[in-house]
Amino acid sequence: MDTKSLTERELDDIYAFAVQLGKDAGKLLLEAAQSRFNGENTQEVVEKDSSVDIVTKTDEDVEAFIKTSINQKYPDHAFVGEESYSKGSSRAYLISDAAPTWCVDPLDGTVNYTHLFPMFCVSIAFIVGGKPAIGVIYAPFLNQLFTACRGRGAWLNETQRLPLIRNLIPPMPKNAPSGCVFSCEWGKDRKDRPDGNLHRKVESFLNMAAEVGGRGGKGGMVHGVRSLGSATMDLAYTAMGAFDIWWEGGCWEWDVAAGIAILQEAGGLLTTANPPEDPSTAQIEDVKLGSRLYLAIRPAGPSGTESGREGQERTVREVWRRARELDYTRPGA
Amino acid sequence: MDTKSLTERELDDIYAFAVQLGKDAGKLLLEAAQSRFNGENTQEVVEKDSSVDIVTKTDEDVEAFIKTSINQKYPDHAFVGEESYSKGSSRAYLISDAAPTWCVDPLDGTVNYTHLFPMFCVSIAFIVGGKPAIGVIYAPFLNQLFTACRGRGAWLNETQRLPLIRNLIPPMPKNAPSGCVFSCEWGKDRKDRPDGNLHRKVESFLNMAAEVGGRGGKGGMVHGVRSLGSATMDLAYTAMGAFDIWWEGGCWEWDVAAGIAILQEAGGLLTTANPPEDPSTAQIEDVKLGSRLYLAIRPAGPSGTESGREGQERTVREVWRRARELDYTRPGA
Question: Residue A84 is part of a domain; what is its CATH number?
Fold first, then answer.
């Protein structure tokens, strides 16, 4: 990572600023959610469907708050946010290596937020040299704050270092994905095409879930299948060690940038969701932030026979062997 | 519900006792989880697979604590707990109408607990006349306490009445299941039989998720599909209004008894998961506690054209239309 242009002290200051910004933004999210408990905005909540408007307004308000705060403090830094991106004319990948860039999702898990399911959060990443150096994720309804800065560890609520189990970090299970908690999302592409993303995803989920020996040898018998409806929270829980594997396509960079910083700082591995031609021998490369395709493996310790990284890579190959290729491109890419 | 033998004052006392018991038991769960953060029981966490032992020990310890506390305070009450049931010789349905009965799962979401994913909880129900009258669910890692007593409302953390949106409870969406958050679980039956439970479940999930018009007209285009790995938490979030629909087979009575008390007191509907011969006209009956098959609908307010109950029943029929019959029987039933 190129942080040459930033001193460690400057990075510390930016980190402290980002953490406070995350707390303040999360508080705004929670206040907006709570204003609905007792019937403010009643007109908009008569039909749950129409509460999309509430989400949009909260999204925009919180993004404006974050963007203004950053512009005031760091006028030279670039800013990429979900809301401003959606309203812009360009669909290009906007994060360059040239300037330090903030990449922000003011509200990840919008469907959850609409329905007041607690798995929603604000996600703030600070990117240097094209790579996430700082990540802040705050889920205010759960009172869970995940933070990381390159070289300074990853933390839950600023006191509990991640992964949670620390002095002997568990290796990946011998027969992974068996023994693993597998996190995945159904997503928004629900087209009923025989070979569309929905069916490719479900086929992959089934391979991971089915008994060993089933599915023509692809049965993975994972310990559990989880779907939270938030890519950001999926990554946070993978960094925590609670999810062993997260596999997903279709995310945007603001969904994952903060989670990547936290996962990598905790010792997790992140690569692409789509299986290469030969899953058993292909190079396992670091994921590209704009790729929209992600496979995350939790932090892992060594076993008697392999290093933590070897266990993670073995798990990546076992997932690739069971996963279908997903079709998510960048508009204009 | 037959509470004739209990005065309202007695029920109040039992409710207060149950809430404190839930808090104390949840604290024990959290302490046992935290003891693993810094490497106590290191031997057992070297392989995540073998941490099943930890779970069993915690399960047994917490159930023993709960059972002893109840026996001391209410020696005449019956007790059914997951651990004691599993070790007993009978597989019969043990809850009778004769005596007030406590039905307890000391740790629901055991896979989550093993992996330290926060969605685990203690579940305590008090049953009178065969029906859950009191429910206490405490998820200590989330600091979320759900409580209810027949006639006294359902509550989150003792201060926020459920459902969360109150002064104008949203009706069910007009085109439900479209617009609904659908909660479901993959469960433990992973046999790769063409018409086994795993494939029937996935077919039902796909029907609920796919675009309207897809799946031969069964596409439900739900707003989101969620899987938490805890039937108890699923029911709590349905009572909260965060999940619109929960559909599941395979649960035992201790998984759901407390959640049923909370959901029903919040105004939710609970019936059977398995579709009747004619989903559009069949009577919608209250679920039987020992049935192992559950379909829950969140509390719903009236719209301009139907009552809350009518909206819930309409949603039940739409789920039945998309759901396959599941095969879960009681051993010996």
Answer: 3.30.540.10
